[in-house]
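QA checklist item 7 of 12: single-chain prediction sanity check.
[x] sequence parsed
[x] length recorded as 355
[x] structure emitted
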Amino acid sequence: MSTSTNTHVVLQRYAPKDVHSPDFFSVERSQPIPDASLLKPGQVLVRVEALSIDPHQRRFIDSLEGQDFGNAKPFVYPLGQPITGIGAGVVISSSSNQFTVGDRVRSDDIPWQTYAVVADNTLTKLPQSSLPLSDYIGVLGMPAFTAYLGVVMVGQPKVGETLLVSAASGAVGQIVVQLAKVRGLRVIGAAGSDDKVSYVKSLGADAVLNYRTCGDFVQALGQIAPKGIDIYFDNVGGEFLDAALLHLNTHARVVICGSMSTYAVDKAKISGIKNLDTLIVKEVTLRSIFYLLHVGTTIEEEFLQEMTQLVEQGLVKFKTDVREGLEHAPQALADLFTGDNFGKLIVKTLAAVDE
């Protein structure tokens, strides 16, 4: 990369179901850096330094061919352009009265490129602190805030209760484990390899199962949670969710956060949830969470206050899987669905290194 050019990662074609590959993207290294003199009022030019790689992005590059969505037309990223996501960077030019050169910023709508013109109403100004920008898309960003919403707002935890979290070594799951332990819960995690199981145990989980080797989910959960589950934080959906429903206690709370086992899968091949009827007499609460609906609220302030204190005191572990170089973003997205990542996936663009 050079300071005279702007690298883009462009979506060239949509991905078939069940196919996870970087080949749907192209890397264009010769794009010009936007001319700062052409910024419109309310726009800023950002040097993008870190990008968050998240499961929902895979849904938005899916091929829609042959699928019937009824009245619900799904969103997809347009072809021939960089896709967008959560990212952080530094303002290098501004036509906004809200941001000045040198401000550290985060946005949920950063394109996969090293320099980007961004509307000021999509940006959040970050503290000028010693914490790296990547922390604000990780341990102090969307994954941790999502975990907080699920554990605190939906889970309404009580000391001594049992919480189960799937994808427990992932970006959201690892924070769920730690927030639950701080609140005096018995925590059970599910992860997809022995290394990930060991990591989740190191976070303080009381018990962890390897969902790839445990055999029948219903039986395995019965053994690891003999007294049932009071809070289930679901990141995977599918068969594991269906099995967990059978072990919920009366008045249990289920946090619907993600459905990684069904993303990018042909819907015709997905088994429906079979065990909802078992919840009726238990008065179980199922609630989904979407962090964007809570940005700027009191609960976000409470989250930032608690998590910043925990991070600064070194009381939170947060494993990241950092890929160096924007060109590696497509492979990172594919790796989310093949299990070839460990921890929160972040791509550092290396734009700042080249200046």
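[x] summary fact logged: Residues 298-312 form the longest helix (15 residues).
[ ] second reviewer sign-off
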